[in-house]
Amino acid sequence: MYSKLQSLLPPSTLDDPAGVAEELLSAVLVRSNFIPGVRHRLGWRGVASCPSDPACRTARVAGRDGVFGLGPAPSAVAGRALWQLFYFPHPDEDLADAFSVQAGALVQAEDYLQRVRDFPAHPEFTALFSVGVVDLTCDPRTPSVSIAFTAPERHVIRALDGVTVQTLQGPAELVRPGQADQDLPSFQAAMPLFRTLAASSAYCLGCAPDRLAHFRASLPRYVYDAHGDFGTERWKQGAELRLALGFGAAAEALAPGIGFAQGKTVLTWKAPETLPEEYENEPWWTPNIQGAAHSLDKAAMGIAEPPRLIVLTGFLGAGKTSFLSRFIEQQAARNAFTAVIQNEIGQKGLDGKLLGQRYAVTEMDEGCVCCSLAGNLRLALGDILKTFQPDFVVLETTGLANPANILDEITDLGGQVAFGSVTTLVDAPRALETLDSFEVARSQVRLADAILLNKTDLADEGTLTKVQDRLRQLNPVAPIHRCEHGDLPSALLYGVNQCPVRGVRLHSLDNHATHAGDQITSVLIDAGCPSSHQEFLAWIDALPESVLRAKGLLEFADVPGTQVVQYVPGRLDISPAGEADSGDRFLVLIGRDMDEAVATAPLGQTGPEKVPAGARP
């Protein structure tokens, strides 16, 4: 099992008891949705991250018409992750009538689905649809994993004074005094989601569970009065149920969990005993999923349909990472998996950390794509395609790369991928100056199949018109799309089949123009000591225009935590690092004649290294 955990989790996570369980559940959600046929057999019908909090997810599974919500909850135990579970019923589903009158009214509202898609942004709304808790524990040292589900057998809320609403015909009593406003079979309602999660865990871990335990504890009934005051009352029939599965030899017993100490153990089982009759047909006992007849599992069906390759390019600071993040989100929402091959100038790959490790990201930290990727692209693709079956492969080139230099190599990839598009992003407010100054920028536009004129909110209409005229001079064929923050529907870019028809014009263009001719270099500064925030801002303000890009992870003496720094001339973004906190503190500068900028950097530098941009350091 340890080898499976290694393939699922980043190496650093395996040594992090506090975060390993949370990362594992996220990895299971992603990995089990890689292959459409497998995904369908496991029971998934759709998984998406929520816009306001990507750690929260909505999911549809077989056996329920509504939408489940999963949101991380605080856990006081290292190696254990808790996820609050919600169920948002379909308006026409019979189960919708089991929720409270207030919840039922919201289910019929016009904005119901909009709220569901981003349920973390509406906590009062979301609380009405809580059904239980999923928790997962992981100990890579043993190794062992457990996944459990806790929910009321029936979640009953009694209205002491009843529920009356005003209608056009006058007051109408919907709930009589003392009767149940809600009588929800929570455990039964949420069991399809747990069943799918458990089957996905078995699939990803490569083994069936060898322990099972079912617990039952008493649960009070909730009551409220006309003033909105809530309380509880003893209820002989009230019960909370907990079902737990264990994987790994160390899982000798599954803990009953908080609140079950005085409860009843309904069932325990461990291998190699005969499977308990109640659960003998559950999908988590068969981790080896085969492709179904309607499956899109290419390997299982013997279909050699390669993933589509998108070459993503654009000059420094054009917004490629923002576009890529949104592209991945859009594909995930339609159950398509995107593998990313990234390339970075300098020795530190920042953008891979910003995107996180929930996706297949390979960072190319030595050199840039147009100079030194010749041997690495095929190897990187081979590694990705051995493990995953992506629908798309996005090659995100450095901002100083000329995509013409990889066209021959893409041709040599043969049947590994189907070449789809060169997509070029253009920074609207800086476009004219950049295109006048850098041949690489002009080549990126000439070679584009689709051009995204980005950051249009930062330029007036007159500037945008001039930029579009210039782009059209360089490339009279490619469509030009205006956007902000790299946000554009991928279907608008690539059509229904996500794959535009390429012209033959690319092969007649010069494929030797690189950034070396523009005399651009990169400098890596290891930030040994933190500076003050104000000192750093003053230094940024004084940077010459020859510094085209700055990016890194820094600490400031007067600001708590590690900060992500992103700079292009005229724009500076500093934000908390969060998951991007890798332990290293550094700043990469890209541009011309940067000696003075490096010498005055208030970063307590421990020896900056200057290399030609694109050369192997």
Features:
20 helices; nine-stranded antiparallel beta sheet; 3 domains; Rossmann fold; disordered C terminus; Hypothetical Protein Yjia, Chain: A,domain 2; alpha+beta; seven-stranded parallel beta sheet; 617 residues
Helix-strand layout with pairing:
Layout: H1 2-8, H2 11-14, H3 20-31, H4 36-42, E1 44-50, E2 53-61, E3 67-73, E4 80-88, H5 101-107, H6 112-117, H7 123-127, E5 130-139, E6 144-152, E7 155-159, E8 163-167, E9 170-175, E10 180-184, H8 186-205, E11 211-218, E12 221-224, E13 230-233, E14 239-247, E15 264-270, H9 298-301, E16 308-314, H10 320-333, E17 338-343, H11 350-355, E18 360-364, H12 369-372, H13 376-387, E19 392-396, H14 407-412, E20 418-427, H15 431-437, H16 439-446, E21 450-454, H17 461-474, E22 480-482, H18 490-494, E23 521-526, H19 533-541, E24 547-556, E25 559-568, E26 571-576, E27 586-591, H20 595-599, E28 609-612
Parallel strand pairs: 7-12, 16-19, 16-20, 17-18, 17-19, 20-21, 21-22
Antiparallel strand pairs: 1-2, 2-3, 3-4, 4-5, 5-6, 6-14, 7-10, 8-9, 11-14, 11-15, 12-13, 23-27, 23-28, 24-25, 24-27, 25-26
Helix pairs in contact: 3-8, 15-16
Q: Could you walk me through the main structural features you see in this protein, from its secondary elements to its overall organization?
A:
The protein folds into three domains: 2-280, no CATH class; 299-517, Rossmann fold (3-Layer(aba) Sandwich), CATH 3.40.50; 519-612, 2-Layer Sandwich (Hypothetical Protein Yjia, Chain: A,domain 2). It has 20 helices and 28 strands. The protein starts with a helix and ends in a 5-residue tail after the last strand.
